[in-house]
Design the sequence.
């Protein structure tokens, strides 16, 4: 089962992609910059709600307009942390988790 997001930084700059405590297996995360001219700056991280600490897969990565970042590692996601994506206030990105 794939998960899809259309994200706009003007409405939400940090989005919960996968809830904490969710047992979910996925093989890839595709993050595409859909803005017509500007780079998108992204952070992909898990967050520990108990210790209020973030652990970053990628941080401050710039994606050029029309380009994508693909993380294609197998993820067995069954930890107590949530998976989150932060984008800039003027960024627009699509996210596909498969």
Sequence:
């Amino acid at each position: 089962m794939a998960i899809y997001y259309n994200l706009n930084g003007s409405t939400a700059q940090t989005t919960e992609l996968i809830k904490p405590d969710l047992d979910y297996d996925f093989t890839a995360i595709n993050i595409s910059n859909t803005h017509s001219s500007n780079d998108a700056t992204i952070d992909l991280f898990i967050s520990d709600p108990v210790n209020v600490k973030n652990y970053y897969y990628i941080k401050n990565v710039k994606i050029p307009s029309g380009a994508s970042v693909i993380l294609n590692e197998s993820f067995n996601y069954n930890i107590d942390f949530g998976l989150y994506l932060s984008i800039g206030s003027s960024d627009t990105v699509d996210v596909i988790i498969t």
In short: The first strand starts at residue 3 and ends at 8. The beta strands are 3-8, 14-18, 24-26, 29-33, 40-48, 53-63, 68-71, 75-77, 82-87, 92-97. The radius of gyration is 13 Å.
